[in-house]
Amino acid sequence: MAVPKTYHLVTLGCPKNDVDSEHLERLLTGGELLPVLQPGDADAIIVNTCGFIEQSQEQSMEAVRTLAAAKREGQTLIVAGCMTQLYGRQVKEESPAVDHVFGVGQWQDVARLLSVDVDAIFDIPESNAKVSGPSAYLKISDGCDAPCTFCVIPKIKGRLRSAPAGMLVKEAQRLVAAGAKELVLVAQDSTAWGEDLGLPVASGLSGLLEMLSEAVGEEVWLRLMYAYPSRVSSKLIETMAQLPNVVHYLDVPLQHGSEATLRRMKRPHNVAKVHAFIAELRAAMPDIVLRTSFIAGFPGETEAEFKELLDFARTVNFDHAGCFTYSLQQWTGAFEMADQVADEVKHERRDRFMRQQQKIAAKRARRFVGKTLPMLVEGLGEDEDGNPVVAGRTYREAPEVDGLVFATGTAQPGSRILVRIDEAADYDLFGTVLSS
Ligand code: SF4
Asked: In angstroms, what CA-CA distances link 46 with 32, 223, 321, 397?
């Protein structure tokens, strides 16, 4: 292979994969390779795949097929990440045009293959993050020790590995210096942070939030994603309520609302405990916004169990809730379970859940009408009459997964402004720019 000068990187999957790709890009550009927008212009094409569920594996495979079909003489095609961790051999067999396959966490090997002298690049932390618009992801740990029977992540990513606090503080400061006004903390399970470093469950993440809050200053928002329900402790709730820049928003994937289903999923929490910590969160932060996600059609899920999930979601009134159909995964506890639910039943239940959630989300969104809120500006546009409109996010919306706020007026992309909310739709809010 001739020494490559340019690369094109395709990233699939979740924000944690975005962070990994950012790490790889910093190695490649540190080695003086240039990124190019079109795969046809690149000496090396790299695909960072997702292997979370069947659908994401298929999307990753489709991207590989497309790039393999268009590959020209002299180009190198590299496929890496979660899907190849599980199915590397099959990817090579299906697409012989793929030159090299790597699993997860092998970014230095990818860079070395492309002739980057990795050891000479001293300024690359092991974990780092992405600045996109006003927000940046900060990956605080990787891997997971939980036994959830539907999830292949521990098989792909391995055991929990927390990034040291000092390194995260340095990285947070770097991102803020680069313009980030919000740091979104991501991990497979953010509330497990520090357990592998010997820190107690209750104080690990709380302590990290305190350090980050002080390091970045009150003006920079800290947002917590992927909390594990049984680890949402009183200490964490107290810390979130006290620190001025931790936004009153929590993403806590609950997966189900039926005790029987949760037990088959090997989730350690029970429904009563979830109600208790949600009540505690709402008492400590009455304006808190809650996001969750559920799985419909887990093996053995009866209509009665699914109705328990509907009742549970209706009782809690989540601001944002997603529902995925269960996806059969090799190497998981649920793979061999009897009573797999038929696809049409899974989809019908998912659709029924989303119809209910749409009404709940609309009702929750209406409580913001009349409020004045700080908003981070994502982009600019026009309404149908040609008036300028600013699109952005308040504390209510996490990047990429929740709705947006559209406010009449102008502002600088990336800036923080004040908006008044005038109207609420099912998922988005509409308002007016008050100050920019
Ligand atoms: S906690 Fe999350 S990442 Fe870990 S096994 Fe369960 S679902 Fe998977």
From this structure: 16, 30, 33, 31
